[in-house]
Design brief:
The chain is of the alpha/beta class. The chain is 31% helix and 23% strand.
Length: 199
């Protein structure tokens, strides 16, 4: 069964494709199907994910899944949150993972409380008007390092130090990272919900 992923992020597609494989689902990036990006006007992950999923389902006629994820830094009152993808642009940098990391480390210089969480909210709908969307949330708590460490992953993985492993997400093998990341947690919960309610 094909499921539209309401994203064109290659890293997100690869991670979720591996995580959804046990259900025999094939994720197709919305761009491959000509789906335009949805507006994301809301201040919560769940509202934005639902909007993206409904948009993808509306344009394709297929069931859709959307992920809205971000970094929530304790010292910044939970920000950047839903603005994570554009974090660097607030500080004069171009949009992009490397610039987001650079901006974050600059803003955290001298900040003692480095606790943060990567949060992923997955929403799946069977149709654009699905009255019962499936919602799954994953949260990986860690600490922001002083400098990037590791070559793997994407986004904030090089600066997200996970105490249980004594490493950043970027230092972990993909299968270990996927099993423990915010997106991995949300995907496992989503698979459970799909098995229970859709299949």
């Amino acid at each position: 069964m094909d499921l539209v992923l309401a994203s064109n992020n290659k890293g997100k597609l690869a991670e979720l494709q591996a995580l959804f494989a046990p259900l025999g689902l094939r994720l197709v990036a919305q761009g491959e199907l000509g789906v335009p990006e949805a507006e994301e006007p809301y201040r919560t992950f769940v509202e934005n994910a639902l909007t993206k999923a409904r948009n993808a389902a509306r344009h394709t006629g297929l069931a859709a899944v959307a992920d809205d994820a971000g970094l929530c830094v304790d010292a910044f009152g939970g920000l950047p949150g839903v603005d994570t993808a554009y974090y660097a642009t607030q500080f004069g940098y171009a949009k992009g993972d490397d610039n987001n990391v650079r901006a974050l480390l600059e803003q955290m210089r001298g900040v003692a409380n480095r606790r943060a969480a990567l949060v992923s909210t997955l929403v799946a709908v069977r149709s654009p008007e699905d009255p019962e969307p499936l919602i799954a949330v994953g949260r990986a708590v860690g600490r922001i390092t002083e400098a990037p460490v590791g070559e793997g992953g994407f986004g904030f993985d090089p600066v997200m130090w996970i105490e249980a492993f004594g490493k950043t997400f970027a230092e972990l093998p993909a299968e270990i990272k996927n099993a423990n990341s915010h997106r991995g947690q949300a995907a496992r919960e989503m698979l459970r919900l799909m098995r229970e309610r859709w299949f």
